[in-house]
Each structure stands twice: as C-alpha cells, then as structure tokens.
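Researcher: Next sequence.
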Amino acid sequence: MISVLLADDHDVVRAGVQCLLGLEDDIKIIDEARNGEQAYEAYRKLSPDVLLMDMSMPGIGGLETLKRILARDNKAKVVIFSAHQNTTYATQALANGAIAYVTKSDPGQDLINAIRQAAIGKHYLSTFMAREIALQSMTNFNNPANNLTAREFEIFRLIAEGRSHLDIGKQLNIGQKTVSNYQTTLKQKLDIETAVDFVRLAMRCGVIDNTV
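Model: Next structure:
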C-alpha cells in the first residue's frame, strides 16, 4: 500500500483527489495539509511514501516546503500537483527535487501513474507537460526564471503579481528587509529595474498570465 500525504489549500481539490485515489486498492491518503508549514510537520511525523503537494499554497509555498523536506529527508518522493500548466513551474519543481509534476487539468490516470512511479523512485511527467517541455527545448528562448532558486522564484512571482513587501514577508515568514534584499538580487540576476519590468518578464516566462 502506497501511503500518501496530500497538501493543497483548496477543500474541493482535496475532496476530489480523495475520491479519485479512494478507488485505487494500492494507494491510501493518510493525512491532509492546507499549507506548506502543515505539510512539513505532517511529513516529519508520518514519513509517507509519497507527498502529493500543490505548488502555490499560503505560507511558505510549495517550492520552499519541497526544499525543507528534502533537506530533512533527501529520499523524499514529492509529486507536485499544480494548476500551473507552464513549463517554468514544472522546471522549477524538478530542479528543486520533485520526482514528478502533474497539472490539475491532466487526466486522473496521470496523477495515479505519477504516484505509483514516484513510490518506486521513478520520475514522471504528465503527457501534456512532457510534450510542452520538449517543444520548449526546441526554441531559442532561454528562460531566466529557470535559473532562480526556489525562494527567488517565489518572491519574483509575488512581486510580479503586485504584492507589497509587507504581504510577501507575512506569507513567506520573512522580514520586509529580506524581501527588499531579494528584490535587489532579482534585479541584478534578471537584468531588470522597474516594477513593470518584473511584470513583463514574468509574463514572458509564463510565471504569471496576461490577466494579472
């Protein structure tokens, strides 16, 4: 039996995943978490075979949670289950140690396959995401967001979404000065200057969409 810890801040998503996985004889959800902090604590206590986790959650967020869990247990098997269909998010997740990436728009069987493959230590990408990454590799666009650390990526996204330093600090449990320091680093690393530059680059990289 594959034990799964489910982390997602949306009740309806967790309920849907419970229904889907409840039909499988070899998979069992042993606990749920609503944010990164809860996911970390539950993982520490339960040591599930697989952590199934959203990427964008309140608090420290999916990427930072992933980083902390792997720092504690470098053999942790984390499947990212995300609404983000852009390759930037998948690339960031895999670069930071996730073993699989499935979007919430993918068929349910992709999620089941990802959990089973992760449980035996094999990487997995949904058919859609594997195709998108393959297509991107054929273009000349070198996505600068792929070179950011997990924390830099989270702050880049939040700044581009128009969040204040105070809001970002509260969400990530860091001080405003730390956020400001990260912003300075991001400007240098991404060769940008203004708030508009942040938004434009984030749109180009697929970190935020054109409706933001």
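Model: The two ends are 42 Å apart (CA to CA). Residues 99 and 123 are 5 Å apart (CA to CA).
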